[in-house]
Automatic annotation (TrEMBL):
<keyword id="KW-0732">Signal</keyword>
<feature type="signal peptide">
    <location>
        <begin position="1"/>
        <end position="26"/>
    </location>
</feature>
<protein>
    <submittedName>
        <fullName>Uncharacterized protein</fullName>
    </submittedName>
</protein>
Length: 121
C-alpha cells in the first residue's frame, strides 16, 4: 500500500487543528464561569399580614462570586397571654442559584425585625 506525503500532511494538519480547538475550549470555559459576579438583595413585603422576604441576585461588575443564595428573615414572635412578650425567631429560605428567587415567610402573630441575604461561593 502506497501512501503519498499529501495525505499524511493533510491528516497531520487536521489533527493539529482539532487539538488546538479542543484546548481553547477547555481553557475558555473555566475562565468565563469564574468571571461571573453578582449583587444580591433582600426585599421585605407582607402576605396576609405575615412578613415575607424575597432574595434575588443579578449580574454586576462590582459584585462578588456567588454560587447559591437564600433569604433570611428574623421575626419577633408574640408569645404568652396577658403578659405578652416577643421572641426573636430566624427563618431561612431554600438555597437557590443566582438566576432564581428565594423566599421565606414568618408565621402569624409575628413582626418583622430584619431581612438579609446569605450567599455561598
Amino acid at each position: 500500500m502506497k501512501v503519498t506525503w499529501g495525505k499524511k500532511a493533510a491528516t497531520g494538519v487536521l489533527a493539529g487543528l482539532l487539538m488546538t480547538s479542543g484546548l481553547s475550549l477547555a481553557t475558555a470555559a473555566p475562565a468565563a464561569a469564574a468571571g461571573a459576579k453578582y449583587t444580591c438583595k433582600a426585599t421585605p413585603s407582607l402576605s396576609l399580614g405575615r412578613p415575607v422576604s424575597t432574595s434575588s441576585c443579578k449580574k454586576s461588575s462590582k459584585g462578588k462570586a456567588v454560587k447559591k443564595h437564600r433569604a433570611v428573615l428574623v421575626c419577633d414572635v408574640v408569645r404568652g397571654r396577658g403578659a405578652e412578650h416577643t421572641i426573636p425567631w430566624t427563618v431561612f429560605g431554600d438555597w437557590k442559584k443566582p438566576g432564581e428567587k428565594s423566599s421565606v415567610k414568618c408565621g402569624f402573630s409575628s413582626f418583622l425585625r430584619s431581612v438579609k441575604v446569605e450567599t455561598k461561593k
